[in-house]
From TrEMBL:
<keyword id="KW-0220">Diaminopimelate biosynthesis</keyword>
<keyword id="KW-0457">Lysine biosynthesis</keyword>
<feature type="binding site">
    <location>
        <position position="228"/>
    </location>
    <ligand>
        <name>substrate</name>
    </ligand>
</feature>
<comment type="subunit">
    <text>Homodimer.</text>
</comment>
<protein>
    <recommendedName>
        <fullName>Aspartate-semialdehyde dehydrogenase</fullName>
        <ecNumber>1.2.1.11</ecNumber>
    </recommendedName>
</protein>
<keyword id="KW-0791">Threonine biosynthesis</keyword>
<keyword id="KW-0521">NADP</keyword>
<dbReference type="InterPro" id="IPR012080">
    <property type="entry name" value="Asp_semialdehyde_DH"/>
</dbReference>
<feature type="binding site">
    <location>
        <begin position="37"/>
        <end position="38"/>
    </location>
    <ligand>
        <name>NADP(+)</name>
    </ligand>
</feature>
<feature type="binding site">
    <location>
        <begin position="9"/>
        <end position="12"/>
    </location>
    <ligand>
        <name>NADP(+)</name>
    </ligand>
</feature>
<feature type="binding site">
    <location>
        <position position="153"/>
    </location>
    <ligand>
        <name>substrate</name>
    </ligand>
</feature>
<dbReference type="InterPro" id="IPR036291">
    <property type="entry name" value="NAD(P)-bd_dom_sf"/>
</dbReference>
<feature type="active site" description="Proton acceptor">
    <location>
        <position position="235"/>
    </location>
</feature>
<keyword id="KW-0486">Methionine biosynthesis</keyword>
<comment type="pathway">
    <text>Amino-acid biosynthesis; L-lysine biosynthesis via DAP pathway; (S)-tetrahydrodipicolinate from L-aspartate: step 2/4.</text>
</comment>
<comment type="function">
    <text>Catalyzes the NADPH-dependent formation of L-aspartate-semialdehyde (L-ASA) by the reductive dephosphorylation of L-aspartyl-4-phosphate.</text>
</comment>
<keyword id="KW-0560">Oxidoreductase</keyword>
Length: 330
């Protein structure tokens, strides 16, 4: 199967190619696409060199699937052109996520909604994906009323230039180009994506709105504070969950232990809890610090970590592509 990766020279694009290789996706030909300035560059896939091509050449090559990770404006412009040529687009940007005509998919939760007619499929926001894979099985059992989440997010979520800013600052380079409005090393920025009129950031509202759409339940209230920290391995989240019904802590652990794609790391006495350093490069979502919120009934606290370039982006997108292939939807 011919597969195009749009944004192949970026952080997520590189990760998509790694995940396609690791999961042995049946790629017969890889078509790497990036901006005009990268056409002619080489990328490596399965030990072979591939030349980056323009999006026009990629469309002409007629891949079955194009996995996009090249930003929202590129997606808005290019995804419809790929779709019109009969190519199924799996898009990592926020461009199509809340479009009511597009599916927003986390395979473990709602891939069953996909049909052959879905030509542009949206991959959710990274912070949202790792949260909903943990929330969904608990919602099914106890019904979630409200979620309060605070995130601790990796600079890799901003892209290559942000990782360069962090390491340049760490090396003492004061003149290095800045992606963030403030230093990121030795700092914490309560600011991810742009600020909106309601005082929240767009990232915070993505967590609120995308959670409802993926889990198919508008009654779940979600309030978020999203924060950038100087780490690279993954995003961490402190999540407070209020249920409609009573829960049992051992049962919560058992449910999460059985959930596909979730690994429970919860042995605080032995200092075992999820961290970006240990989640880095992994496809699973890690959950720990599972404990009762003693301040009110039916409420739970837990801590979720995942590699935002993996389950938060590349892995989830490749899993969508796998589902399309396995169910003959492309
Ligand atoms: P390029 O390297 O040519 O700029 P990151 O988020 O890590 O910075 O990566 C963004 C990715 O999106 C890169 O591969 C970048 O290519 C790609 N990209 C940006 N603009 C376009 C565009 N107009 N068409 C195709 N790819 C694009």
């Amino acid at each position: 199967m011919k597969i195009a990766v749009v944004g192949a020279t970026g952080l997520v694009g590189g990760e998509i190619m790694k995940v396609l290789e690791e999961r042995n996706f049946p790629v017969t030909e890889l078509i790497p696409v990036a901006s005009e300035r990268s056409v002619g560059k080489q990328v490596t896939f399965k030990g072979k060199q591939y030349t980056v091509v323009s999006y026009e050449d990629a469309i002409a090559a007629k891949p079955a699937i194009a996995i996009f990770s090249a930003g929202g404006s590129t997606s808005l412009k290019l995804a419809p052109q790929f779709a019109e040529a009969g190519i199924t687009v799996v898009d990592n940007s926020s461009a199509w996520r809340m479009d009511p005509t597009k599916k927003l998919v986390v395979p473990e939760i709602n891939a069953g909604e996909l049909t052959k007619d879905d030509k542009i499929i949206a991959n959710p926001n990274c912070s949202t994906i790792q949260m909903v894979v943990v929330l969904n099985p608990l919602h099914k059992k106890y019904k979630i009323r409200r979620v309060v989440v605070s995130t601790y997010q990796s600079v890799t979520g901003t892209g290559k230039a942000a990782v360069d800013q962090l390491f340049a600052e760490r090396a003492g380079d004061k003149e290095a180009p800045k992606v963030y409005p403030h230093p990121i090393d030795l700092n914490v920025l309560p600011h991810i994506d742009v600020f909106l009129d309601n005082g929240y950031t767009k990232e915070e509202m993505k967590m609120t709105n995308e959670t409802k759409k993926i889990m198919g339940d508008d009654s779940i209230a979600v309030t978020a504070t999203t924060v950038r920290i100087p780490t690279i391995g993954g995003h961490s989240e402190a999540v407070n969950i209020e249920f409609e019904n009573e829960y049992d802590l051992d049962e919560v652990r058992a449910i999460l232990n059985e959930t596909e794609g979730v690994v429970v790391q919860d042995d605080p006495k032995n200092f075992l809890y999820p961290m970006p350093l240990t989640a880095h490069g992994k496809d699973e979502t890690f959950v720990g610090r599972i404990r009762r919120d003693e301040s009110q009934p039916n409420t739970l606290n837990l801590w979720i970590v995942a590699d935002n370039l993996r389950k938060g982006a590349a892995t989830n997108a490749v899993q969508i592509a796998e589902y399309l292939v396995q169910h003959a939807l492309v």
